[in-house]
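Problem: given the chain below (240 residues), write out its structure.
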Amino acid sequence: MTGAGVIERIWRYPIKSTGGELLHRAEVEPRGLVGDRLFAVRDAQGKFGSGKNTRRFRRMPGLLQLSSRYLGDAGEPALLDPRGAVAPDPNACLRRHLGREDVEVVREGEISHFDRLPVSVPTTATLDWLRSAVPGVPVDERRFRPNLLVRTPPGAPPFVEDEWSGSKARIRRRGVRRVRAVERAMRDDRRGPAGPPPLWCCGPSQKPMPCGWTGSPRSCPRDRYGRETPSSRSEKSSPG
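Solution.
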């Protein structure tokens, strides 16, 4: 992956399936970006809030209208309402906004909050291709929930990420191994804070777009993040 590109933006999502925060720098640990999706919204059945329904997740309409970020050295993230104001009581804000009393913000335990793997890396080449494929439609990177947006060199083809299969990248002193492409849903019609209107991800083809790639830090235990589990094999990735 020599000369694959440079990191243009770093995104972190303290509470899964809420709007994230743009960072100037981030620490990386075996789990992924420190603090990324470390918290999630859980309901009374023990399912985590997401944009889909699976064995682990439950779709919670309206969740993406909220945002989260870490303030200072606080160990727990702040929850921001749709206007961008910090909620003094995150659980009360959630229940009011979602219209249900059985939800709360919880820290990750033994069950991972990640859909599959912990680091999502789309490229500008792919996003630029999508913009040309659907002219007149705002294509915002936030719709694809990236962690690292890589600006590729001029002339890089769209979906260049597919050529990175099996390779390793080094970001400063940390190694990242490319594992697999991640398919995003054909349409993401959830409106995030200050986000664009609904986006048809695939244009005329109507096919799922393998947007970027998902990698795990090289030191990450393969059995937790690098191996498909029965639940992950049955779950198609979608923004979360």
